[in-house]
Specification:
The chain has 223 residues and is α+β, with helices and mostly antiparallel strands. The chain is built from six helices and four strands. It has one domain (51-215): Alpha-Beta Plaits (2-Layer Sandwich), CATH 3.30.70.60. Strands 1-2-4-3 form a four-stranded antiparallel beta sheet.
């Protein structure tokens, strides 16, 4: 194996600068194709499935909020009307939806634990260097536009929130691939927003991942 590698290096040394650039370009093209086939394609399928689940939760929240808003609006028009039972029904439905969200969120990494989880996995790879963490804040899963500016139903539920985090790192290309695979194998899940990788002086690369999780608490991710 060493003899073959030495022979290959001798052949590369014998090439002109232009020929070496062509070989390097072909190598980068092959690496890019492997990157897309081995990592991005599976991540993309996983992300599509995850976003479909989030979209379903959004639709259920929006429907419940609309129902609660209609009931409360009717109550304001006629405060003495026998609407208490309907209001309680709306509250019960929203409580049931919150329970569903809790059950699904229970399979996700808690927001306050996500930085520790990502960084602890990173430290297992000697070829990777931690650069930084950036909390992206908490956003309502259902926006104000979907709720309506004066939506009284918003008072009936705590809401679901999306917590984002960006992790930046540097190191070898192969260690980066293994790190992302290790994140996929974690018992706790999270949603992939984006993966960015820039190859510098081969085999060193600089990358970042943006991930998010869900919870019923707006609390900021602890970094």
């Amino acid at each position: 194996m060493a003899d073959r590698l030495e022979t290959l290096l001798e052949r590369l040394d014998a090439l002109s600068l232009k020929e070496r650039m062509l070989v390097l370009g072909a190598l980068l093209l092959v690496l890019g194709m492997l990157w897309d086939r081995m990592l991005f394609e599976p991540l993309w399928r996983h992300q599509l499935a995850a976003k479909a689940g989030v979209g379903q939760i959004k639709q259920e929240l929006t429907a419940m909020e609309a129902e609660g808003e209609a009931v409360l609006a009717a109550a304001k028009r006629d405060p003495d009307a026998p609407l208490r039972a309907e209001i309680e029904h709306a509250r019960a439905a929203i409580a049931e939806l919150e329970k569903t969200i809790k059950d699904k969120a229970g399979k996700l990494v808690p927001p306050d634990q996500m930085p520790k989880v990502l960084e602890s996995v990173l430290t297992k790879f000697e070829g990777l260097e931690f650069v930084g963490l950036e909390g992206l804040g908490a956003e309502p899963l259902v926006t104000e536009a979907a709720q309506g500016k004066n939506a009284p139903a918003a008072d009936l539920q705590k809401g679901a929130f999306r917590h984002g985090l960006r992790l930046r790192f540097a190191g070898s290309y192969l260690d980066t691939l293994e790190y992302l695979r290790a994140l996929e194998r974690l018992p706790w899940g999270f949603f992939w927003e984006s993966v960015d990788l820039r190859i510098g002086d081969y085999p060193r690369a600089e990358g970042s991942v943006v991930v998010y999780t869900l919870s019923l608490d707006r609390g900021w991710i602890g970094i």
